Amino acid sequence: MKFSWRAEYLGLSYPPPSISIHGTVLTGLNYASGSCAFSRKLEIISVECTIASCTIVFIFPGKCLNLDDQIELFKMTVKQNLAKEYGSKKELSAYLSKSIFVFSIGNNDYLNNYLQPHQYNSSHRYTPQQFAQLLVDSQGLKVVVFELGPLGCLPSTIRKSRNGGKCAEETNALISYFNNGVGAMLKNLTSTLSGSTFIFSQVNWLAYDAMVNPSKYGLKDTRNPCCTTWLNGTLSCIPFLEPCPNRSEYFFWDAFHITEAACSLIAARCTTGSSVCVPMNIKALVQI
Questions:
Q1: How far apart are the first and last CA of the chain?
Q2: Per residue in 24-64, pLDDT tens?
Q3: C-alpha closest to that of 202 among 256, 118, 145
């Protein structure tokens, strides 16, 4: 949803899912895949629920598109579709050089793997610093890369930590290793890949500030899901139940995902502001 809001702020149409398109689209595509991770080596778990109970289901590689798969789909788009639209490699390169590539991934590697020590051994095999580097390493253009948000402040994390409704700061500290690694990687790429521009979307502090000071951003509730979820606010929304009527006042839609209001807040700051996306905002990136 964050990407859709960015498109809207730039006056563009929403990018459709790439796998639903048959033919060529020149205004952008969405290669994202819900609940996926950086690597197919990092299995993900989900929870399937009925009215009576919830069951943990293991999602093995191939059931969603990890980052490697998404990049392969992009390569197919360029080779099979875009190449037909342009008469030469030079024209195609010129088109791609004006495009903006947005990456926002990594939450599930932590929420559904590293922070699940009873299900996975990654937290025993890797220190927080080593695991962050493992994710960073598994990655002449315009590229926007997002930090991970404060996962210790998710409703799911807060309720499981039983810390009096406060954020789990030890979880937030884990995420900082990843964010620092991504920032260092982008600085290195900027210096080694001449002609390319890398934007670091530092959303962690903004999301944290909004959760701690909701009234500052026109919000009222940053601790609870807007919808009624399974297992007392720790999972996804229960289908067919009416969500909260004042959803624009909530930061979280369910126990994990942010609302349209939160997405709009992040998109606005990154598109035209100067404190979130560095070294320039998205509007400045478009002009390059």
A1: 25
A2: 777 777 777 766 665 555 444 333 333 343 433 333 444 57
A3: 145
Please tell me the predicted confidence (pLDDT) of residue 149.
Answer: 92
pLDDT in tens, 255-271: 999 999 999 999 899 99
Question: Which structure tokens are listed for 31?
Answer: 């290669």
* pTM of the predicted structure, to 2 decimals: 0.70
Residue 86 burial (CB count, 10 A): 15
| Model confidence pLDDT, tens digit, residues 92-123 | 888 887 787 777 766 666 666 656 676 666 66
Instruction: Provide the mean pLDDT of the chain.
Output: 78
| Backbone angles phi and psi of 190, in degrees to 5 | -60, -35
Question: What is the rounded distance in angstroms from the CA atom of residue 254 to the CA atom of residue 242?
Answer: 13
